[in-house]
Specification:
Blueprint (H helix, E strand, L loop, with lengths): L19 E6 L4 E6 L4 E6 L21 E11 L3 E6 L4 H12 L14 E3 L7 H4 L9 E2 L2 H10 L5 E5 L1
Parallel strand pairs: 1-8, 6-7
Antiparallel strand pairs: 1-2, 2-3, 4-5, 4-8, 5-6
């Protein structure tokens, strides 16, 4: 008589998009996760694309946008470990962008950009986060071990607030 072993997949309970929210404080280089009761859950160091921590103005300026966004997709990334895509530009972003154009703050021919997300670092380059090196094109980057934790914790739809 043969012994047959079967494996049973143990699934994680589905987390509601409103279970957590994220606050990124550019001036503190932090990403903090809160639960729905506004209790601090985790905090991670992050870096951005420019030493100028001002709000994103136009495509290619390497600045990180400020405002309220949501995670719209998640994927394992060949370069940056994991990628949590944000819904930038959204209606709030377009409103600020168009207002800046109307007031001559930016060129009438400028474009708003896109492709902003939260991701890891290049393989073996977590030191960029330790050294607060700006290296992205405007995304938020953290250490690979941290982005894996965030990827596993935060569902699509999670609110992300980026503050100055």
């Amino acid at each position: 008589m043969a012994l047959v072993l079967t494996s049973v997949a143990i699934s994680q309970p589905k987390v509601d998009k409103d279970e957590y929210y994220v606050v990124i404080k550019k001036s503190d280089f932090t990403l903090t996760v809160y639960n729905r009761n506004h209790v601090w859950v985790a905090r991670y160091p992050v870096v951005f694309g420019s030493k100028d921590l001002g709000d994103k103005m136009i495509a290619g300026d390497r600045k990180t946008p400020e405002g309220t966004f949501h995670i719209v997709s998640k994927k394992v990334h060949s370069k940056w470990c994991r990628f949590l895509a944000l819904d930038y530009p959204n209606a709030e972003s377009y409103e600020k962008f168009n207002e800046r154009k109307a007031h001559g703050v930016i060129s009438p021919n400028a474009s708003i950009g896109g492709g902003i997300g939260i991701h890891g670092t290049w393989p073996n380059e977590d030191f960029a986060v330790d050294n607060y090196q700006p290296w992205t094109e405007g995304c938020i980057s953290t250490k690979n071990e941290y982005i894996i934790e965030l990827y596993n914790l935060l569902p699509v739809g999670t609110k992300v607030i980026i503050e100055p």
